[in-house]
Every structure is written in C-alpha cells, then in structure tokens.
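A favour, since you know our structure tokens better than I do. Just paste the record in under my message, thanks.
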Amino acid sequence: MKQYIAFDIGGTYVKYALIQEDALIIENGKKKTPSTLEGLISLIENHINQYKTINLEGIAISAPGAVSDEGIIYGSSALPYLHGPNIKKLVSERTEMDVYIENDANCAGLAEIWNGSAKGKKDVLAVVLGTGIGGAVIKDGSLHKGANLHGGEFGYMVMDAKQTTWSGVAATGALVKNVTKIKGAEPGTLNGEIIFKLAEEGDTDCLNAIDEFYHMLAAGIYNLQYIYDPELILIGGGISARDDLVDNINLKLKKIMEAVKVAKIVPNIEVCKYRQNANLLGAVYGFIKEN
C-alpha cells in the first residue's frame, strides 16, 4: 500500500499525517507554525527524516493563498513569508522528494471527491464557512482553479446594492460580528457556539440574527446553483457540525424559490464528511491525481 506524508500549514499550527492511498490516516499530529520560512522548511525536513525506513511516495502540502501549479503562493495570509518564494521547489530540494502543494480550501474539496460526501460526483461546489467564505470548484471530477487562481473564492460575491460581500453577511464570522454589534458586546466575547446557545434559550437578538444569516447563506447558495449548476453543493467549516444546518438552509431556499417563479432547480446540499483532516487528505489526493 502506497504511503504519503501530508502537511497542512496554518497560521497557528502545522498539521501533519501519514496517509495511505486508500485515504486511511496511519498517524497524525501538529506542531506550532514556525515564524520564518527557514523554520517551516526545517520542520518539514526534520519530520520527513523520521520516516527513512518507509518508502514514501511524496509530500503533499495544503497552504493558504492562491497556489500556482509551479508552487508559488500568491495573495496574502497570516504567514507573509509564504508569499513570493517557490515553496514547492524549496521543499523538494531540501527533501529530494516529489512535492504537491495546493490551496487549503481546494484541498478540502478534493478530500470530499476522494472519499467523502462527493465521492462519485463530477460537478461539485464546496463552500467553507469560517471567518470568511472560501471553497472549491470541482469540474468533471477535477479541481478547477480558474484563470487567476481564484476559483472557489465565493465570499467575494456581492449580495446587495451596498456592495456587501457574501462573506460579509453569511460567514460565521459575520454572524458573530453582527450579534456583537447589536448587543454592544466587547469584541471577542461572543462566538458562533455561544450565539446558537443563546438562541436556543430564546434570545431574540440571536434568533433574528441567525434567521437573517440563514437567509443570506441560502441566497448565495441559490446564486451558485444557477451560476454553475452543480449536482451537489457541500457545506464545510465548524458550523457544518450542526444537525439542523441543511434543514434551515433548505427552508430559506424554499422561500426564495417560491418568490422566483421561474426557478425550478433546487440545490442539492449536504455537509462535508471531513473536517479537521480534510486539508491533509485532499492534498494527498491532489498528489495522487497529479502523479
């Protein structure tokens, strides 16, 4: 059974895992993200050296930013040192191994195609909700990155005449920001879990904010359905753990479609199967497909 080593580079931690070609995670863990590029390359190199007795097929990396096929990461993130150098080339030279690197949200989408909720599907959109909204476009079973490496940046979609973006009204972060403002709370004192708990206890502010949140989330999903016409739209991020998420989105979609009489295609929505290990698994699947 072929084995791969995967790294998921985040702003706080670098996650890592030894993964088989059947998507089985043999072992995994995490280390604090280094403050320099040299520190990151050394972390990867030192971790690889622990597996000298194993015939690894290669290294798969998930990273923030717009990742080119050459291995250069454009855009910006919480790790400025990632942007500019050819990360793929640097890791390959230091480890003398084949390297695959891809955007983290794209990796999450690839994981679902490989062995998750989208297995066997051809045209899929994965929407990842967090501080903002990102995601991935799967076309004919493969990742579609777009002409400017911005395929899947759904959060930039403008939702009203004030140029408010989808991230600004339907990300989990937007919900928290909205309730914080309504209640006059100190920034950082509320989060999504607290807001949903308060709503369950009957808090009117939270109930109204969540209602609006679900409407705007459904409106964006409706737009995506008619832009791309996928067979499946997946929802990822921490909020996808809520059992009532899809039901609430569908309720809002029903109202939208009742208002738009010409619309007959109802979006097919499911939650992502993978959460904390999605980026690691997707990076490995990307490596396998490329090689």
